[in-house]
Amino acid sequence: MYRLLCLFCFSGLLAQSQVQQLDEVVLSAQRLKSDIQPLSATILSDSLNLNFTQEIGGLLQQIPGLIVSSQQNFSQDTRISIRGYGARATFGIRGIKVLLDGIPITTPDGQTQLDHIPLSQIGTIEVLRGLSSGLYGNASGGVISLQSAPIISETNIAITKGDFQSQSLMAEWSKAQEKHRFRAIVAHQKQEGYRKWSGFENTLVSLSDEFDLKNSSTLQIDYSFLNSPYAYDAGGLTLKQVNENRKQARQANLNYNAGERVQQHQLNAQLETKNWQSYAFYTRRQLDARLPFVHGGQIDLGRDYFGLGAQTSGSKNKWIWQYGIESAAQHDARIRYKNNLGNKGEETLDQNERFYSLGAYGIAEFRYLDWRLRTALRADMHRITLTDFLDTNTGKKDLAAVSPSIAIHRKFSRFFSSYVRWGTGFETPSLNELSANPSGKTGFNNALEPQKSSETELGILFRKKKFDASLTLFYTKTKNEILPFELETFPGQNFYANIGTTTRKGMELEGNWLFAISGNLTFSYSRGHYQNEIKKELPNVPKHQFATTLKQQIGKSTLALHARYVGARFADSKNTIEVPHFWTADATIKRNWRKSELVIGVNNITDTHYFDNIRINAFGGRFYEPAAKRQTFLRVVVSF
Is this model's pTM higher than 0.90 or not? Predict the structure, then answer.
């Protein structure tokens, strides 16, 4: 395998792909408008529309140190981990800050769902690997910044059909005038799924309105709507069950009608003036979920999430800087009922949970000859409150954190530079994790503590007109690492505990070469050790990952080939259950005819047996969610 890996790496040094732009770019996710990048970062922009995926995680497979899980379980939502941060998530994303056009879609307590964003809206994705609490505060073990494509005058209709009865319909209309730009996107998706009881359906609406005001000011207002009437959860299987029938669902998930229904509204506003940028947002999410157990197995969750922020930047002589303030609030009304084989029973929990956050930050960069010194400092205050309507476990707790970081960047030549960075991070337990009380009582699990980290990172960068490469070495130590577990008395329900100190160390390599005007290729490779105090590896975090993508223009057609390797990992904290490594390969070809476009693709060409998700520390050995085998699709896009 290692010889094959070396061969791929060698071939990757002979070309490039869609992952990084070779032109000099400024990362908006690093906040400061600087021409240097003293942090590990990847930019995705070109050819995002060549992928066949119904969720954003499918666009991120090329990034070293990042792993995507649960891409085919739309009830549990996409899970993403970066250097092991986020690996504990049992649904959605934890420990990673996600932004859309600079506005946080991650809640103050660190939870993120990506199901409300149409893929056709996205123009650029920036990913910062490593601790970023000095920039973004709580739950910033990495940052994913989604940027909407610029609004231009166009009308598009896209129809996609694929195996497992996958289908989607997208319509986009946009109009760009001198001082006013408007875009509307409506998308509908539906799929029966590879496994039994894994189907879903949703409808997305996205509206964007931009206005140019006086004095070079710009106002942008965005509204999005998600309606998912059903998303079923096939559940985890034992290895014996997987070998018997990969497509089957766990029987308990069928018995208890496991799945969810979601509806969400989100409204954002951004104002950019000559000196300031500010934003405000409000999100309302309603979740009705059924879990595969009786006590508390039906959840009625109403969430209101809102906030605002402002920032300003400046420069003088050899200094550039930015400072800002952000605040957010999260109101969760959580009610649990008994799940009597899919029917709602009596209440087992009724509580209002509140998470308030206030943060202020400053970043400054000083230039001296070929040296750059950058410092950042952020202070955050959090208040968590609980009102218990069934018992007397009402209470509150206050948490505070100061997150410094410092980086030194040195440019040695036109093509070669290096940096060293040190920073800290912190992550509070989410409200969902706190409310999962192993005692079986109402109220919070007060034994669960925030996790705190520090990280040192060394980066070496090489950039020419048609070739760039980067090597990153990192060492991170985390105290009070949080992981999920299950109990025999509550099978299927996830609880959380601090497991002590963990150490993350490793290397990440990326290489890109634009070898011809009509062709390019890229590769990425990461290797790491993610161990606790007794030298056990963090579960669901592979030591080795590799990906490469070749894109070739052939007349009016574009061919894209993608290969990915995910190394072995463990399913449990004791490292007794090893999940085997796997290779997958995808291929797509796009053909343009005047105002129409045809895309044909095959995912998992080799028909590899692997796992879409691993349920960490699941009771009874139910760790495995089998991934789909070979899947073909066809997409037709017509422009008017």
Answer: yes
